Amino acid sequence: MLILLVASLIAANALFVLMEFAMVRVRPSRIEVLARKGDRRALAVQGVLTRLDDYLAACQVGITLLSLVLGWVGEPAVAVFVAGAFGGLTEMVPPVVFHAMVFAVSLAILSWLHIVLGELVPRTIGIQFAEAVALWGALPLIGFAAFLRWPVRLLSASSKMILRLAGIKPAAEADHSVTVDEMRVLLGETQERGAMPLERLLLLENLFDFGSAKVSEAMRPRERIAYLSLARSWDENLAVIRDKRYSRYLLCETDLDSAIGIVHIKDLILSEVGSNPDLKKLRRDMYEVPAFESLEKLLKTMPDKGVHLAIVRDDLNRILGLITLEDIMEELVGEVRDEFELVSNWVTGEFFSRAAVDANLPTIERKATIRHLMDKMKAVNPDLNAEAAFEAVWERELKFASAVGRGVLVPHARLLGLKEPLIAVGRFAKAPPVPTPDGTPLRLVFLILTPLETPTMQLKVLQRIASLVTNETLRRKILRAKTDESLLTILRTADTLLAT
User: d(Cα 98, Cα 92) in Å, to the nearest integer?
Assistant: First the structure.
């Protein structure tokens, strides 16, 4: 009979521990979603979370009372069985020693049962299945707290008073907001569970980086600006229009530094002019922004003002480049083509080089791996500042680890002054001790550097790499390649197929 009582006390203790950790662990945002759907259990959980300190105190009251009772009745109950098991020793040792042995063994057994079955196991279950446990146990917990209302309130009030004296907020008032870095981790874990494609994760990553992006990072530099000039003949200006096929052009008195406005092709078409139109009469005012302006702010400002193109100037009022709404959107979603752009198949294969491929990477940690591949990039491009490139990549790695699951690492960065993308590829024969989101041993590393001046290039390369590693057939072929040459051949062939 006493043994059944002991088992019941341990089970009841486990339930309180289960509820305690589930309520602390459960995501309020998930409960909010269920509550909006009319789930009454979720509404009960919300009630618990709004007074979390009170209900944690209720759990502690239950755990403490049960532990005291367990210690009171448990040891004698277990001692009966232990004494029976050691009965043969009664004639060999003094009674005092025998009772001490029985007490020690009984206490050890009871402690093991209480700690393992009453604490550790329910704690793990409460953490792993927090939502289900919280939904199942919220109403019973509310009932228990109501039954012991006054002791619970006294304990909760005492706890809150001590916390406030120490300058600490109670649990219910704590800040549960999620930082951007935490959101990156959560989204990475979501992608690893198969709830989000890798391409969408990369898109969201661009969205997070968008807040710190400046106009100078997305603008078209002045060397790439096509403009119309009053100093040119109409035939020369028309040749520029036919070659570039843009809808808007800067209008300048002579050269680019004498810009006076913008000419829209629609105005040219709708104007009643002869073979030599007066571009100055068709001029529209131009919008100007500083190079350090936030892209996020500009994305709101330009549509509000009805502006599609802006001139970018530096502190000395010199024209550095221009930026369009399309350029801003490309920072988020990749290259955007209109119906007049000449479309050509684009492949990353041209950026793969034999010198930057290593089919048998040494089994080293992540930082050393990136340095190893950076040295290979240096061999391909001697002008590359390898140390500055490494610092840019590693700084980003510290903010958001680029292990994207499926045994793939994609460290990358955009560098000022780089003329074209550089890609180094490595494959581990034996997985290094590098943590990955889904636990898959790390096998492939794609180190990517792209020009800072062409932000869409990075997006295009990342999207292509994502397509490579999510294609199971291609991934198997890459992992089975025996030499650098065969690995390079597979990468170039696969990339060409994906581009068609």
Answer: 9
